[in-house]
Amino acid sequence: MAKVVDILKKIGAVITDDHFVYTSGKHGSVYINKDALYPHTKETSEVCRAMAEMFKDKDIEAVVGPALGGIILSQWVAHHLSQIKGKEVFGVYTEKDETDNQVLRRGYDQVIKGKKVLVVEDLTTTGGSVKKVVDTVRQAGAEVIAVCVMVNRDPVNVNESTVGAPFVAADVLEAQAFDEAECPFCKQNRPINTNVGHGKEYLAKKAQK
């Protein structure tokens, strides 16, 4: 099976040597355009199969991911786990509320209550978002068996202690992230990419100051 990063590169989802703003607000030169993956159902299935295979020996009863990308991941990973194990594995998702926390709506808290859960996420820069999902799943009365991300961009700083649960990544693509004040690309006055990532919003906010 092809490595996850190789699959992403094949479909043009990995962009390098540019100036990006990540979801965390940090800046960097490598961007994984996860949204470029999801229209390709074959490749999405391959990536999620790789994630599911990592847990074939674990008793997983439900898969939970944060909207929006996590909806697709949770469904595909649950589908492959169901096939591997020969039993139904549920796939549900959390949504952001007004306070930026991740919540289980639509009765999904009852679906996972008392179950053994795998939390999935596409990318993580700081681990902050996925930890919110872990906390929400536990509050719903479920047991978090592990967290699995498609690609870990910072294996030094994002780990089990960061996300609050056993943590693995299907693949790693190290992409150093900088605070704005320390960003070498800002210091070089390198233009920010506004086509992908959060560069457009970042520049709009900066213009209002």
- SS elements, strand count: 10
**In angstroms, what is the radius of gyration?**
17 Å
What count of domains describes the coordinates?
1
Q: What summary fits the major beta sheet?
A: 6 strands, mixed
Number of helices: 8
What is the name of the CATH topology? Rossmann fold
- Strand proportion, as a percent range, falls in 15-25%
Q: Could you say which structural class the secondary elements and strand pairing correspond to?
A: alpha/beta
Provide the low-confidence segments as ranges. none
CATH architect. name: 3-Layer(aba) Sandwich
Short structural description:
The protein is α/β, with parallel strands linked by helices and 209 residues long. 34% of the residues lie in helices and 22% in strands.
